[in-house]
Amino acid sequence: ESFTYSWLEESYRVLKPGGSLLTYGTKHNIYMTGWFIEKIGFQIRSEYTWYKTNAAPCWTGRNPTESTENIIWASKGSGWTYNLDYAKSLNDGKNIRNVIVKSLTPPREKKHGKHPTQKPLEGLTDILINLHSNEGDIILVPFCGSGTECVGAEMLNRHWISFETNPEYIVTANKRLDSLYIE
User: In terms of pTM, does the model score above 0.70?
Assistant: First the structure.
C-alpha cells in the first residue's frame, strides 16, 4: 500500500497542471488505488473497462472468469486533455463509451520478449495515448515493463520518460523500440 501511495504521490508532484494519469488495476488493487488518487489531490475523470475477449478461464470454477481490467483516468486539476474528435473517429461520429473491447496482447507484440501484465499496443494503448495526449506531449511511464507505452508514444509522436528496475524488461523494451527503426 505504501509503495502505491508513494508512486502516485510522486506522479502528482511531477505532472504538469492539467496532466492526466491513467492507471490499470483489477479487483485486487483498483479500489485502494482510486482512494489514494483522490486523497493525493487528483480528480478522477472517468474509468475505462478493458473487456478481454480471450481472458484465461477460472480454472477452479469457484468464481466467474475475470475478463476485465479497470483503467482510472484522473487529472491534476483542470485543463486536462480529452481528444473528442479522435474519440468520435472511433465511433461513427459519436463519443466513445468507456468500455474497450480488445483481446489480450497478440504474439506479434511479444516477439522481443514478454511481460506478465503486458498490454496490447493496438486497440488499447494507442487509443488511450491518442485520447489523453497530443503530439509533442511528454508521457511518463513509471513502470516500463515491455515498453508498450513507450513504443506507442514513439509511434504517435509523443516524447516519453520511463523507469524500470528489472534488467530483462529493459532489454525487451529496448528491442521493441529499436525494432521501430530497424524493421
Answer: yes
